[in-house]
Amino acid sequence: MKKLPTIILVRHGQTKWNVEGRYQGRLNSDLTEKGKEQAKENAIKIAKVLNPTKPFKIFSSPLGRAKESCYIICDALGVDKTEVIFDERISEFNYGIFEGKTKAECQEKYPQVLAERKANKWSYQIENGESYILVTQRLKSWLESVQDEETVVMVAHEMVNRALRGLYCNLDSNSMLDLRQGNDIVIKLENSEENIVV
Predict the structure, then answer these.
(1) Contacts of 146 (CB under 8 A, 6+ apart)
(2) Does 157 qualify as catalytic in the annotation?
(3) Domain ranges of the chain
């Protein structure tokens, strides 16, 4: 792969299911008022690191919470919403049978599945869902498709962003799985390194 673009990596704002501790995955939950404010604050951080003289492209997961966050960011940055490129490959990790359930509900209903996944989080594929191996395959495909861009803003999700950060910074699977990103954190990926934008 050629030199990768600078990527400004954003997670969607807080959702109702984030507050309730539910697995979201491919299902959707609306942003809370706090989540909408986080998206506006994230736009301010993005503006700090965008070079106004250089072109950039904005990509978003097509899932509702990312799309809503992206549109708020577009409004704040003065970007035409029709310029957003929605890409299925940056949709959230598919949690399969866990989706819509709280962690406590999954612990009660699927204790064996949780134990098996915990023992092999990288390659374990949840029923009707994904493994991190599958997620990184689609993210590699996305990265290859943007490698000729100079700067990309990406609005997506914590798990998929974790995998992307791992790929971009050449991390091993264990280091990647330890990564976290709050709803109010913007990360700049550049030259195979990452920095939090403050």
Answers:
(1) 4, 5, 7, 57, 59, 152
(2) yes
(3) 6-197
Q: By the 8 A CB rule, do 90 and 10 touch?
A: no
Q: Which of 12, 117, 162, 188 is catalytic?
A: 12
Active site residue 40: no
Q: CA-based angle 62:17:87, to the nearest 5?
A: 10
Q: What are phi and psi of 196, to 5 degrees?
A: -80, 135
Q: Is 193 exposed, middle or buried (0-12, 13-18, 19+ CB in 10 A)?
A: exposed
Helices (H) and strands (E) in the chain, counts: 8, 6
The hierarchical CATH code for the domain 6-197 is 3.40.50.1240
- The pair of structure tokens assigned to 123 is 């390659």
**Coil vs helix vs strand at 63:** coil
Nearest Cα to 19, choosing from 9, 32, 6? 32
pLDDT class for 2, splitting at 50, 70, 90?
low
pTM listed for this prediction: 0.95
Among 11, 22, 117, 157, the one annotated catalytic? 157
Please compute the mean of the pLDDT values over residues 17-29 and round it to a whole number.
97
8 A C-beta contact, residue 104 and residue 22:
no
